[in-house]
Amino acid sequence: MILFGLNLLLAFVWAFATGTVTQVSLIVGFLVGMAVLHVMGSALGDPRYVVRLWRGGVLLAIFIRELIVSSVRVAFDVLRPTLTMEPAVIRVPLDLTRDGEITLFANLISLTPGTLTIDVANDRSCLYVHAMYGTDPDGLADELKRTFERRIREALR
Prior knowledge:
- The protein has helices at 2-18, 23-44, 49-79, 99-111, 137-156; strands spanning 88-93, 115-120, 126-131.
- α4 packs across α5.
- It folds into 2 domains: 2-44; 49-156, no CATH class.
- It contains 5 helices and 3 strands.
- Strands 1-3-2 form a 3-stranded antiparallel β-sheet, with helices on one face.
- The protein has 157 residues and is mostly helical.
């Protein structure tokens, strides 16, 4: 997180150094800062900063895509005269071990329409999720793990 703040600082320094503080100069400054931090990463303590930042951006893009797709699916189902949903509570086994990672995973699930994280097992081995479309619990659990859990692990480790 410190390197991200340093990257933002470098973006502003770049913008002020060029004499024009615009969105374009800030973006260019951020990219130049990323390059500098990539070269200096091991000296600053995190040689994988740029890779982790990229993977975090990919996670954000995937979440936005899932948010849009599931919103449309839920909206169409609500507007139909007959509902096609089959609610179920499913168990999603966890490979994540850190509290922050589990919290992020649970929140991404809850923020996606049609799913809601109910609880985390006491031993942190699984999440219990309520799903509007639970006809295939194992398939849904695998999709959540493939879509979010793997990306969280890649971005944060």
